[in-house]
């Protein structure tokens, strides 16, 4: 089929202004955030409804064209880069908050809605969407569902999987499957939505979702604590979970060299919240409903941890500005990461007790292949998710492979997972067997073959990239 014919047929579906062909496709629809993966899709299409998405999928299937949904492009593994010659599908016109139900505590939202806008819409209605991550201003609801994103509040409210109640998706043949239920409990047969969550758009295209909201907390306590040993940090976290009566919402753990690098790089903008030199730092946050009592409880618990010797030092934010300065160590990372470019970013997971062994093995593996490499570790300790930034001042295919091998070898040694938040995409596909058994991979292939036998949806990713 010629491009002219394709363009005309697509315009029939979505209108004159919402189809872009060839060189008219903007860079953000062709290149991922790392700029490592880029492509030349034949068309960019911007549907305005689920019916239009279904029509585009049917058209693509008839013509033998692939479809990749392009969201906020905040992923790091190439999951949302369209295939050469395929269709890039942007849901930016499908970005509405359809409904907020304060009684059911649910939000019905289109997949193209930006996470931060969904958070703000919920807050206006006195409700709270707990999912939060650094890319909140660009990540879309469809994207965070596709990767089963976690973020910095997992310890209390769980991952995206725990917040999705209902889904509407378009399958590879254009069939619309919709279950936009508000029910928290439904055990009538297979719970198919969990198959789609975390599938990176390879099994279906999410168009709308019903998300679980919570009553909006009215108090917030934030602190930075330091410990000398990893074990003390985790014991402190568990004590905080109990002593704060379930109000602990964040426990962001940072290794000493990460903390030193970030605060030094930010020194021209803001002072370090605490002096470097301790073994570990943790950003601690609790959210509750009684500001006076919660503040007193928070201070009392931290003081007891210091008195027992578990915590070496602690600073509690006394204002919004001080809270922002503490969070900046984790969220304003550009100054600290810029000198390390080009670098590789990893998000891996494992049992919390295995983190020290993983870090030691990763450092040793990197030192063996690249003695001049530097690596920084930080992460969401509550859910076993660690991030690693690896750099040596230059990058090519061999260096990338050496970094990958060292990090994923260490993950395999502790029985962990090579993907905690960003998925498998293109870059991690060669290592999928390091974290999944042959039987598991065969099952994944069976599911892919059943739902997308012609490899229409997001080809070249996950299993297709192996």
Protein traits:
466 residues, alpha+beta, Uridine Diphospho-n-acetylenolpyruvylglucosamine Reductase, domain 2, Uridine Diphospho-n-acetylenolpyruvylglucosamine Reductase, domain 3, Alpha-Beta Plaits, 4 domains, 7-stranded antiparallel beta sheet, 5-stranded antiparallel beta sheet
Average pLDDT score:
94
CATH topology of the largest domain: Uridine Diphospho-n-acetylenolpyruvylglucosamine Reductase, domain 3
**Named CATH architecture of the largest domain:** 2-Layer Sandwich
Uncertain parts: none
Could you give the count of β-strands? 18
Strand order across the largest sheet: 15-12-14-13-17-18-16
| Rg computed from alpha carbons, rounded to a whole number of angstroms | 23 Å
What is the distance, rounded to the nearest whole angstrom, between the alpha carbons of the first and last residues?
29 Å
**CATH class category of the largest domain:** Alpha Beta
What global shape is seen? globular
């Amino acid at each position: 089929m010629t491009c002219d014919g394709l363009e005309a047929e697509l315009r029939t579906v979505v209108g004159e202004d919402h189809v872009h062909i060839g060189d008219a496709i903007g860079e953000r629809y062709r290149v991922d955030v790392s700029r490592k993966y880029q492509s030349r899709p034949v068309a960019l299409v911007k549907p305005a409804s689920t019916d239009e998405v279904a029509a585009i999928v049917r058209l693509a299937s008839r013509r033998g064209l692939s479809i990749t949904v392009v969201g906020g492009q905040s992923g790091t593994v190439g999951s949302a880069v369209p295939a050469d010659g395929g269709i890039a599908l942007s849901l930016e016109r499908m970005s509405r908050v359809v409904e907020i139900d304060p009684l059911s505590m649910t939000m019905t939202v289109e997949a193209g809605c930006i996470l931060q806008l969904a958070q703000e819409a919920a807050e206006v209605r006195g409700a709270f969407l707990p999912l939060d991550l650094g890319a909140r201003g660009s990540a879309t609801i469809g994207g965070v569902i596709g990767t089963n994103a976690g973020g910095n509040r997992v310890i209390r409210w769980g991952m995206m999987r725990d917040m999705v109640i209902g889904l509407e998706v378009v399958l590879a043949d254009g069939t619309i499957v919709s279950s936009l239920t508000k029910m928290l409990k439904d055990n009538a047969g297979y719970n198919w939505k969990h198959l789609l969550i975390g599938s990176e758009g390879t099994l279906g295209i999410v168009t709308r979702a019903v998300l679980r909201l919570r009553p909006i907390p009215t108090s917030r306590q934030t602190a930075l604590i330091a410990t000398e040993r990893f074990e003390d940090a985790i014991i402190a976290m568990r004590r905080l979970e109990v002593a704060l009566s379930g109000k602990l919402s964040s426990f962001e753990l940072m290794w000493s060299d990460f903390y030193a690098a970030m605060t030094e790089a930010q020194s021209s903008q803001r002072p370090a919240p605490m002096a470097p030199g301790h073994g570990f730092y943790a950003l601690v946050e609790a959210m509750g409903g009684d500001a006076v009592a919660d503040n007193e409880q928070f201070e009392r618990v931290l003081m007891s941890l210091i008195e027992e010797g578990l915590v070496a030092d602690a600073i509690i934010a006394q204002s919004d500005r001080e809270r922002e300065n503490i969070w900046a160590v984790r969220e304003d990372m550009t100054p600290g990461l810029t000198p390390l470019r080009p670098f590789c970013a990893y998000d891996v997971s494992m049992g919390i007790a295995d983190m020290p062994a993983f870090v030691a093995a990763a450092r040793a593996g990197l030192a063996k292949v690249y003695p001049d490499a530097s690596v920084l570790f930080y992460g969401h300790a509550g859910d076993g998710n660690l991030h690693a930034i690896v750099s040596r001042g230059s990058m090519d295919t061999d260096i990338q492979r050496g970094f990958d091998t060292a990090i994923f070898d260490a993950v395999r040694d502790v029985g962990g997972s090579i993907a905690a938040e960003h998925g498998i995409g293109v870059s991690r596909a060669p290592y999928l067997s390091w974290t999944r058994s042959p039987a598991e991979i065969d099952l994944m292939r069976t599911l892919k073959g059943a739902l997308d036998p012609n490899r229409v949806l997001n080809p070249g990713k996950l299993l297709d990239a192996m």
